[in-house]
Specification:
Distance between the termini of chain B: 34 Å
Shape of chain B: elongated
Distance between the termini of chain A: 57 Å
Largest sheet of chain B: 10 strands, antiparallel
Strand content of chain B: 35-45%
Largest interface: A-B, 20 and 28 residues
Structural class of chain A: alpha+beta
Low-confidence stretches of chain A: none
Radius of gyration of chain A: 17 Å
Largest sheet of chain A: 3 strands, antiparallel
Number of strands of chain B: 12
Number of helices of chain A: 2
Strand content of chain A: 35-45%
Oligomer: heterodimer
Mean pLDDT of chain A: 93
Number of strands of chain A: 3
Shape of chain A: elongated
Chain lengths: 83, 177
């Protein structure tokens, strides 16, 4: 029995308005066989600083977040503002 | 393969039922004859954690924590989040206060904000007669208040925050994905 743990980004979801949802999985294995997978999530909004994100996440954000996407998202945020 | 054999084939060696197609789910009332999920398809369940971050005007400069804990349960498109943060320094950022990094982006429902059940301990000077409110909008939980003198909504900013204190909340909202 050899337990091991690894952390991977196992899902990157791009929404219609450019928001990116990231899922990180902690994968526990026993002698190479996966026995558990625990998730942690966060959301990245167009224009946000992604310099500390995983390389794949960063690449997708930079590819999706054109100036038009960022300005459209900012307009959406402003239109929904309660105060 | 008979229906019974097909259903049996969905059960893996761990005893879990695994649907073989992405976004496939359980269709209720026999209303969906298409391959795509509809409003009667239950096609998602997930639990996990998230790390709540306090911000002012979208910045978290100098904010530190004694504790930062978040968990979520997503059933279909409905997400319930739990949060606890204990702030040990409120930092120097300015602007409207919010808790960010929700695990799923909320659906844009216009002015239909999701309400939040919360408890605040020592973190905010609420102001005499003011009524604190937390609501979910875009990808943040906004920390606002109703001004006693006018009834208008306003956002708490850094100057209303004490140097340390905590917030607990539970909220349910509709996700976009």
């Amino acid at each position: 029995m050899t337990l091991a743990s690894s952390t991977i980004i196992d899902r990157i979801e791009v929404l219609e308005n450019g928001v990116v949802q990231v899922r990180q999985a902690q994968v526990i294995t026993d002698s190479g066989n996966e026995i558990a997978r625990n998730f942690s999530r966060w959301v990245l909004t167009p224009g946000e600083d992604v310099s500390t994100q995983d390389a794949k996440v960063k690449a997708i954000c930079e590819a999706v977040w054109s100036a038009d996407v960022i300005s459209a998202y900012q307009a959406q945020v402003a239109s929904q503002a309660k105060v | 393969m008979s229906n019974a054999q097909y259903l049996a084939s969905l059960v893996n060696s761990s005893g879990n039922i695994v649907l073989p197609v992405a976004n496939a789910g359980i269709v209720f009332n026999n209303t969906n004859t298409t391959a795509s999920p509809t409003s009667t398809t239950q096609n998602d369940y997930e639990t996990g954690t998230w790390t709540p971050v306090l911000s002012f005007g979208g910045s978290s400069t100098g904010i530190t924590y004694t504790g930062q804990y978040g968990s979520y349960t997503k059933i279909g498109n409905l997400v319930t989040v739990r949060c606890y943060i204990y702030v040990s320094s409120k930092g120097t950022a300015t602007g409207a206060s919010a808790i960010t990094t929700l695990p799923f982006a909320p659906t844009n429902l216009g002015q239909l904000y999701s309400s939040v059940s919360f408890y605040v301990s020592n973190l905010i000077t609420i102001g005499s007669g003011n009524q604190i409110e937390l609501n979910i909008n875009n990808t943040s939980v906004n920390i606002n208040y109703v001004v006693a003198s006018s009834g208008a909504d306003a956002a708490y900013n850094n100057t209303s925050f004490n140097s340390s204190g905590s917030i607990w909340f539970t909220a349910t909202y509709q996700a976009t994905f």
